[in-house]
Batch of 3 targets.
Target 1
Amino acid sequence: MGSFWQIKIYRSKFIAYTISVVTIGLALGIMTCAVLMYQWIEGARAEAISTFARIENELQYDTDRIEAYMQRIYSNDRLMTDVRFFLGNTAEGYQTSRLQNSQYNEPLVSFPEDMRAFLHSSMKGDLTQVSLHTDSDSNVVRFDDNGNPSFLFRVPNTDEIFRESMEKGFVYRKKLSDPNQISRQIGEFRFLIGSDPLFRKVQGYKLDIAAAISDSGEVYMISGMDHGTKEMALKATEEKRSSGYSSLGGMKNVFFMTFTSTKFDYRFVFLVDLSHLMHQKAGILFAVVGIVLLAMISVLLLIAYNMRDDARFLRHIIHSIKRVKTADFTSSFPAPYRRNEYGMIARELDDMVHELDKHIRTEYLLKLKQQETEMKALQHQINPHFLYNTLESIRSTALLHRDVDTADAIATLGSLYRDIVHKDNIISIGEELELLQKFLSIMELKYPGRFYYQINVDEALLRLQTVKFWMQPLAENFFVHGFNSSSEFNLLVVNGWEEDGRFILEFMDNGKCIPEARLEEVRQHLICRDDTPVRSIGLRNVHTRLHFFYGEALAMEIENNEEAGVKITVRITKG
């Protein structure tokens, strides 16, 4: 160390490095301990949540079983009769009533035994007491840990055994109604779910301090009784927060969580005594502190080692300068390769960025060209039979009628195809509707007196840009698949309007509906992105061309009308 400690600049740097390393080491140590504490507390939080969920699930299961047993009573006349004998009777009166009303060919039904077999067993010992009350007194069935029943008869309703407390458990009340007159109450059941058997099921959970607290302030300690923490649990319930850190007086700093039951009037309180937690995890914390100290010492030794080499390097430079002063130009000092290496890396990075830029631009332009080529290819796939069919219709009309309508039809057809050939690929909705209207005029000539059309499109849509010649395939589908040649009224309606930030175009007809299986197939093929051949090539091409132009703003749907025909809806979200 003496080789650099004698040089002021390195001495100051070493002091600065030492202060920085110690500061960073202490910060890292504190942060590590804080992270560990946070993880331990989060683990305890998860355990508390799991414990409360288990308790609530057990209570839900118990109440569900009680509800099921009440249904069992109402559905079993003999069991209901025995319950009524038990209600408000003495032990002798209960047995006498049962014997007097028994039949020699039927076994006796015992309400307590049935309840023990069906209810107590399924609730896994949670049910500790059942009482059946009249207005003044009650008959009680108690179960010990082995499920053996004991009985108390004609106990006043004001007796201490009916006082509800957290130490005893949770009381679930159910009215007993007359099965012949359900609105008349003849008694009341009180099922006591014992705290001891219920909370014994969660004592295997890793809980530091846990308690159940009733709304009246009664406390049942589930765990942590050795902490003397009833007062701590009660004080935690006074917090307005449901979880957090709190100081409960003196050195008692805790993390607490409170949960409110949805089934009964109690709160589950969970506490982590931070000082107790640190005492439990002292070994881990000491290990962290030791590792941080070892790391700080190692870093300082490494700094001292590097500074010693730097000091030797500086002494070598000074020695070289003195040699130059004496005209000794034989240098043993290494060349500054670092700057050249960094410059090389910078040049390589610059070249790499340049190459990436060229690559991205090339790929982007190729993608645009590919999409443009695909759009043109799709546009050229539009059904070529349209021209031949239309010309054949005009020829047949001319041969049969020899009227001036033929000349008008030929003029309309010529105008239509001139527009198709000479208009740009991108036109307005208004221009696209003009092309559609010319096509529909020709169809009126082909089906005189049997085909009609209406176009009702708001002006807001007419200026919207779109691709050319996509409406005609939608209309042509109607004539190919939905037109009813035997009907005197075939109608095609085009509606368009603006709503809620989007434009909507509807193409509706009153022709034939599409079978549901075929309709689902068309929908799947409509959104398919691969090149699999499909029967509905017209709709598929229209959707693909519009999707190329509008992107994700386009939505296209096809469905049957309620009465007849098909509706195709095109939605374009404003962008």
Target 2
Amino acid sequence: MHRTTKRTTLLVLLFAFSVSYSQDKIIDSIKTLVNNPKFHDTTKLRAVSNAMDYYSEHDKNYYVLNAMLGKIAVKNYKKNNPPELKKKYTMWLSGYYSTVGTEYSFTKEREKGLAYHDKSIALLKSVKAYDEMYSEMIVKASLYVRMNQDDKAIPLIFSAIKYFEKDKEYYVDDMAYAYSALGQIYIGQKQHQKAIAYNEKAILYYEDSYAQEPNDHTSYLKCLAYGNIAYSYSSLHQFEEAIDYCNRALQISRKIKNHTITGLLLSRLGNAKMHLNKLDEAEKIFNEILSIKELAEATNDAALASAHFGLASLYIKKGNLTQAGLAAEKGFALSKKTGSKDLQEQGAHLIYDISKATKNFERALEMYQFHEKIVDSSQIQASKNELEQQLLKYDFEKKELNYKLTAQKKTATKNNWLIGLSGALLALLLGGYFYYRNTKQKQAIAGLEKNQIKQKLLITQMNPHFIFNSISNIQALIRDKKDEDAINYLNKFSVLTRQILENSNENYISLAEEVGMMENYLLIQQLLYSNKFGFTIAIEEGIDTESLFLPPMLTQPFIENAIKHGLADKDQNGTIAIRFYLIDAKLFFEILDNGKGFDGSKTISNHKSLAMTITKERLINYTKNQNFVVQTDTIKDQDEKVVGAKVVFEIPYIYEE
């Protein structure tokens, strides 16, 4: 029997009371259960808060029942009861707070939900009910995830995992919840392979739980995990796999008659079909969602918004921009009601694309600015930083624990004299070993934090003046009715902004992605500088741009320097020539311009630019070479006249086949 069996039995009884009995009978029945020693360890309604998504859809009496339980718990908690009865009412009150906290998590007042979960955790800790306390931590972590505060959720989840994994069979439900939460966090970070792995682990635990105690709630949670895997496969453009997992999830959601999840899964299925150009099948699926009367009656905005967005994308593919615009606007209005940033971001992106295509530039600019407000890349990075630190700490502590247990088993078989001698020696060795490992761990974490702070500073390389000037130029082109120029400019600027924000969170990107970002940057600079220069980007034959990965945005400060300073005296006919080439398996970047050359020193190491300084520090960090040098030359003709400048430096890279 696993841990939630007795609590689930109580939950079923109480839920049955809420459906079948009058309030007086409910109260009498609850009092009977409270005073029945058989249910001493079942009074904590943790299953309530974990089951909120499922049961709240079917019967609002569920919340009514919890409020009644809360009144009884509060009243009796304040009494001067014997210790055993005091603990019982403490756990009842904790269960009430937990459910109220979860109820708030589905409203705009989510901060209140956190406060109630904290009350629940404090009560459980006061009576040393650690099983329920760590379960409640996972519930609180789930609320943090809903609030897009993954970095606060991660420590709670890992604390729970370390506690529950001491008996994975007994804590099968709790392990499943923890792995599901980690899978959700990895989805938010767009690390979909890891998200799939954690959701698959969760499914194994859900299957074990269902085998021990079949119930619809476990089926519901398994359905969610399948749906999350389908979402990750879609994000990886593996649409056949996405369809397979959507169908697995739909089989469950239809069986348990959960219309909300069915609607969202159908939307995911329709999108996968659409990407495989099965447009008629996709349209039929999206219309099926809109025809589910239970969704309309429950005003289920998330599922309906997803359906409208799906239809908008489908109409774009069919070339019907009018219908696409109507569907996208309907979905966008619904997405705002949900409070979901992901849905709002999707809607803004769709309307932006449609507005550009229909030359409604004012609406396009409005959607672009809305999108930039809701995308918080620094929060994603903070979450990644916290997750990586927790994983590092967790693996370290786990290995240390295994090491200690192994050592204890070996020494247990020796006689007392050997135990004493070996124990003294082992203590000395372990002390040194722990000190060494702890120092290494701290250095690794400090290095990780330092590197990620530097990654965040990459965003500063995109000069604010460049952003503001670009937006001003777009607005001017719209006012002057230069439609084609406005479309061209807006498209390149939005693509570049998205590339920089996304790549600033990555340690390595492909050479193809780096070159694409360069081209967009140079094209925008051409527009800003009235086409006073041209450019070329050459890659040596034999270099596989898709398999060669390098740190992002190392080259951008040198390109900016060549345009801003090298070509400062040129009003026309300027040239920028960029080249990537290999020498002895080392990758080199070279940039030439036909400008005024370098004044004085031939080294860029003394340059005052913040972007240059950051870039050189990054190069030193990646190469582990404190003497790293950027080679610079002023180019002269036969008459010693300056005709340009050249910068060359080695770029660290990794190669993946």
Target 3
Amino acid sequence: MVGPEGGPERGDEVVLLGRQVECAELDRLVDAVRAGESRALVIHGPPGIGKSALLGHLTDSPGDLRVLRAVGIESEMELPFATLHQLCVPLVDRVENLPTPQRTALETVFGIRAGAPPDRFLVGMAVLSLLSDASQKRPLLCLVDDAHWMDRASAQVLGFVARRLLAESIALVFGARERAPDLLGLPDLEVTGLRGVAAHTLLESATHTRLDHDIRSRFVAETQGNPLALLELPRALSVTQLAGGFGLLNTDTVPGLIEQSFLRRIEDLPEQTRLLLLIAAADPVGDPALVWRAADRIGVTPEEALADGTDGLLSFDLRVTFRHPLVRSAAYRSATESERRSAHLALAEATDPRADPDRRAWHLASATAGPDESVAAELERSAGRAQARGGLAAAAAFLQRSVVLTVDTSRRAERALAAADVSLQAGDLDAARRFVDVADQNARSNFQRVRVHLVRSRITFAAGLNREAPPLLLTAAQRLERFDANLARETYLLAWGTSALVAADAVSLRAISQAMSELPRSTAAPRALDLVTEGYALLVTDGRAAAVPVLKRAAAALADLPARDLLKWGWVANGVSAAVWDDRAMRSMYGRAVDVVRAAGALTELPFCLASLGMATTWTGNFTGAAAIVDEADIVAAATGVPIAPHVKLRLGALRGRTADIEPLISATVEDAGASGQLMGVTVAQWSAAVLYNGLARYEQALAAAQTSAQIPELWVSVWVLPELVEAAVRVGDTKAAGGALEGLTDAAAPCDTDWAQGVLARCRALLSDGASADGLYSEAIERLARTRLRPELARTHLVYGEWLRRKRRRVEAREHLRTAYKMFAAIGMEAFAERARRELLASGESIRKHRLESSSGDELTPQEKQIALLVRDGFSNPEVGSRLFLSPRTVEWHLRKIFTKLSITSRRQLRDALPRSAYEPAPEQGFRR
């Protein structure tokens, strides 16, 4: 609380006397920070409860802590990173110490440099690194009061930072009326009303008459011990009302009562003083010079406005300060609409259009009673600046207000389209729907109507993968053809990708593919986009044999795809390499996608790219690397709030063959994905089940799962499951099912001349052959797969060949292949398949001792510790590891000390010996780093 001249009142002392428990907790927090620990805390409670007094108690801590302060301001809630800027301004000289991507992101959001909008999570990493760097000299105490009024961008970033504090000497403490969504999950301290002696003492300090004990008790009870109410409400009551206990009968909420009290006090002030309070309330900056310049424009002078003071409601110092935020809202509410517009106009005229154009535009908008094209255009320009700083919510707010002020229908449609698009990017689907409706109503050209349809389609897709989005996107693409051929192709590709992901509507996928096949061919050399759309269309309309030549050219073109295109539609195009069974291109393409997304700071896209790379990595048998990618994807997904399907975990668990770990996940995925119509999830889960049960030699179950997966109209996994179906069907004697699966696999793999395709196809043909034909096919499969990095497939080929040889009583040859298979399975970590190979060896008459399975190295480490250790082993620096895992470099160092202790080593170099690469954990391929 702030006294009449801005200093602490005696009331603060009484409030804190009644907060001994809370103060003790805050003292422990300060002690922990001094000891090198990190703390985050949300102090929450209703208005006037004493949150600011508790933050003041922290500020009074001894001077060995550096204090950074910020205050959320209601009228700044639409300005991106306003609160964050307040907090970090004292550290701006340290920004140059940050890694380049983080430095660029922070300088961009603070308007120091122009650039593409940075991902807000990259900004969060930059702030975490900045605070960590600053805390190396002195512990940091970061206080944010009125956190419920933080702008959304600041709230997201500071919530992100607070969750990642670990080994830094930093405390981040928020004072808020309620626990905001972006601060949920943080440790909290609820502040309630004063009780007993403290409440009575505070009430007596605010009254000038002796109160009966029962009246005092009733007053305390009805105000719920709210300190500001105990101090403020007696001033609004007459001596008679106070002494008789009247005045609180039929009470409203306590905050409402307090604000009413402030309203009455404001109404009693002279007109010039009231107008001064109004201008200060309308100004979010708190700059005394700005307030006085604006006041002068409406004829308010310091001599008249301050002649009799402000009744303790407002004070001028380095900043203009209200006694309490409720005073600000009361001062604004007490004015007429005309007075408010005049105040905003005065503030707009007093604001430097070069130094602060966005606040000026917002004031102009608030000063405008009706439509005004010049102000609407200013807001549109402000939206562009906000978007460039990464403030999507602010850009949406500026554009939405711009629409309201626009009369011209065509311009109104354009601005509404822009508002809908940015609202969609900001995650506000309801606002996006409202403004796309406005754009639809005001559209005057066919091109505008087509773009309305496109945005509406994207909103539908963003609302969840469903069967409605693909036909909407198809219609949008068809209508775009006459206006923008390139955008039409991109939209066709997105429609195709969404339809393929839903995997529930073969009719829709065929319709999209047919439309794509009818697109005019380019007379110039075809681009990657042209080749991908043509190849995908052929894949559905004419089959793989017709599509493969085009898709191979597309895969080559995609190797040099510009980053901007990769970010827009690369997630669809990256499936090209898998469609032509090119395992090396698949790993390279997914690895590059991860690198590009990281470099762009597009962290909301990163979990999906990591999932694709993780799936590609499982094919090589590099389970350690795949698990590390899964861990990183989980960390990013948790940090960004982006849900990610457990496809890689399913695949990895199935190959490892640990039933206790994987069977519950398979069942849960089938149930959840099936209920929500996400049939891709069902496909992957059933494919994983087929792999698991083939490894366990539970062939009936493998056959059922494989048949379910193969029946879903999907173009990748439903093909990859066919070898599982062939193997399971052969083992149970269902030659018809095996033959049908082999026919489907032949259609999919025969046109592809890669060793992956031809090796797997030869193995499956061998399973359905006999005699010399089978011998030759098994040998061909081994020869081809040995030229790839697909170690699990090679090991499985040795296994089935050895099983066939044993059944043909060629035991010496069988043992050779079974031993090779067993050693490979054990080294890779494929437990179920290793046991299956061991049983076959025993059946062949060979005594076999169980090998220690791979993946035991570093098992004593936690998943995060192992992730850090592997990255450091592979040559990443602490800042690089921190950037990947959303940790500060100091936290990475803290984890490394624990890792060294657990592994009994003393240096980073020794990690190579402590966590060695096995023969079946290949090093990252050239072109990307894991």
